Amino acid sequence: MHGGAVAFPSSEDTVRQALKAWAAGDVDRTVRYLAEDAVYALHISEDLLPFGGETVGRANIETAFRQMRDQFDYLVFRPHNISSDGNAVRLSVEHMYRHRASGAMLTGNFRLVMQVSHGKITRCEEYHDRAMVETFMRLFGGK
Known about the structure:
The protein is an alpha+beta fold. It is elongated. The model has no long low-confidence stretch (mean pLDDT 94). Strands 2-1-6-5-4-3 form a six-stranded mixed β-sheet. The chain is built from four helices and six strands. It is 30% helix and 42% strand.
C-alpha cells in the first residue's frame, strides 16, 4: 500500500467474526472486535436485566457480556439475513437460551444493528421482543 494507508476488513466481515466468536462462547475474542469507546444498547429494562439498557466502553461491555453468559446457556445463536450498507450492518439472530437459575427456555429472534469504523464495532443496538423477554424475566428472575 502507498502512503501508509491501513486496510481494514469490511464492516460485514468484522461483524461476522465477532458473531462467530460470540457463538463459540469466546467473550475474550468477541470484545477484541469492539472499539475502546463502543456502545452496546440492549433494549430491555435495566430493572430486569443487569446488562439491559446502554453500556459504554469495551471493559464495561465485557462485564455485561460475561453476565449474560453467566445467566444463560446459549443453546442456539444463529445469525442470518446479514446485510451491510457502508459502516452499518443489520441482521437477525435466531436464539434459544436456557436460563441457568430456573432451567426455563427463552427462544425467538432478535435484530442487531451495528456500526463499524476502522475494523472495530463502535455501536451495537439489540432489539428483542421486549414484552416477551421482560415477562420471562419477571417470571424467572432478573437482577
